[in-house]
Amino acid sequence: MWDYTDKLKDHFFNPRNVGEIKNPDGVGEVGSLACGDALKLTFELDENGRIKDAKFKTFGCASAIATSSVLTEMIKGKMLDEAAKITNKDIADYLGGLPEQKMHCSVMGREALEAAVENYRTGGKKKHELEGNIVCTCFGVTDKEIERVIRENNLTTVEEVTNYCKAGGGCGGCKGEIEKIIETIQGDRVKQPIHPSPRKSTKLTNIQKIQLIQQTINEQIRPALRADGGNIELIDVDGNKVIVAFRGMCAQCQLAEFTLKDVVEAKLREFVSQDLYVEEDKDSAQQPHNHRG
Ligand code: FES
Hints:
Blueprint: H1 6-13, E1 26-32, E2 37-45, E3 51-59, H2 62-75, H3 80-84, H4 88-94, H5 103-121, E4 134-136, E5 141-142, H6 143-153, H7 158-165, H8 175-191, H9 206-226, E6 231-238, E7 241-247, H10 254-271, E8 277-280
Parallel strand pairs: 7-8
Antiparallel strand pairs: 1-2, 2-3, 4-5, 6-7
Helix pairs in contact: 1-2, 2-5, 4-5, 5-7, 6-8, 8-9, 9-10
Bound molecules: FE2/S2 (inorganic) cluster.
FE2/S2 (inorganic) cluster (FES) binds next to loops.
């Protein structure tokens, strides 16, 4: 049984704005029945370019129905440009979160919105087309779509990519290709650490601090550890104490202690706050040792 929020259950049992607008200004159709999820979004604008009405028809699971329902609520009343900025994360957040395995439903919502906006802007002349080359033939997912969900959601594993866009969730034949895309993007992040930038003493709220710690781990620390066959997980943040667990590394390894202070703590102090110190949660560390070299 999935761990659904009350808001998600409410939108599943009482979906809003079901149906299809007659003579809509924009139409977005994504997914396919063969792949298990399909969504048709239609909207109508008022004379000022504000979304007056939006409706959806969805074939799919409870999450697909609930995300489609909230999407229509989120865009109604917004100017088109403003609505077009909505991300899959915004949709998931609006529901109070989605199970990781269901994040692809929020991505489908964002894609339908983009398709509908594109349909409106091209006067209905252009159908939303998949960009890039198909990587996952089971679900018809292209390399560009995979790259996008990885970059927008800071994904680091094939399993996460499957959760967000289904690629890799069928025969598994595309997993090697997905792994290569992840490695290329992580390589880019190491070479061009644009974000986050080193920060000085600006006061952070607790939520900002935790988000920045997670972002620094995703973008600055994990790629370096993965290059050596390891990984890291953020376990908790307690004041200035950051508790992490190494994966794929031996908890007793001296190199792990070095990595903890000279890589993890140093990066977190550089990018988040000079006051942070890091401890390893040895109870949740995994065996066995997997260092290369
Ligand atoms: S080709 Fe991607 S899961 Fe089959």
